[in-house]
Amino acid sequence: MIQIICPFCGKRDHSEFSYGGDGEITYPALDANEESWHDAVFLRENIYGRQIETWQHIHGCRSWLLVDRDTKTHEIFSVKLAHLDWHILLEKNR
Ligand SMILES: [Zn+2]
């Protein structure tokens, strides 16, 4: 069972989260050609090992998270907010 530590809610079962996909994709510019967008959206690597993933705490605070996880062992190395501005806001209010 995978448990993810949400920065707002604490440790929760992964069933509270929705997987959002690869967190390291660099999307093309909005005016890029169709082929560039096709490749960015549909051509993904199926990594067997450590990768950065996006997860949304859909049954909690609804935050989007970046989770550094090993797909082979399910070990989670780090969890942080996907939106940097939220992270900065949290740091300022501590
Ligand atoms: Zn949460």
Verbal overview:
By secondary structure, the protein is an alpha+beta fold. The protein has a single domain, classed as 2-Layer Sandwich (Folate-binding fold), CATH 3.30.2270. It is 19% helix and 35% strand. A four-stranded antiparallel beta sheet has the order 3-4-5-6. The chain has a two-stranded antiparallel ribbon with strand order 1-2. The longest helix has 9 residues, at 34-42. The chain is globular and about 40 Å long. The structure holds zinc ion. Zinc ion is lined by residues 6, 8-9, 57, 60-61, 63.
Give the second-level CATH assignment, the architecture.
2-Layer Sandwich
Helix content: 10-25%
Any idea of the CATH topology? Folate-binding fold
String of helices and strands: EEEHEEEH
The amount of beta strand, in percent, is: 35-45%
The count of DSSP E runs of length 2 or more, i.e. the number of strands, is: 6
Structural class computed from helices and strand pairing: alpha+beta
The shape is globular
Mean pLDDT: 90
Number of helices: 2
What Rg, in angstroms, do the CA atoms define? 15 Å
- List ligands, each type once: zinc ion
- End-to-end Cα distance: 31 Å
CATH class value: Alpha Beta
Order of strands, main sheet, comes to 3-4-5-6
User: What's the name of the CATH homologous superfamily?
Assistant: Folate-binding superfamily
* Sheet with the most strands, sense and barrel status: 4 strands, antiparallel
- What ranges have pLDDT less than 50 throughout 5 or more consecutive residues? none
Number of domains: 1
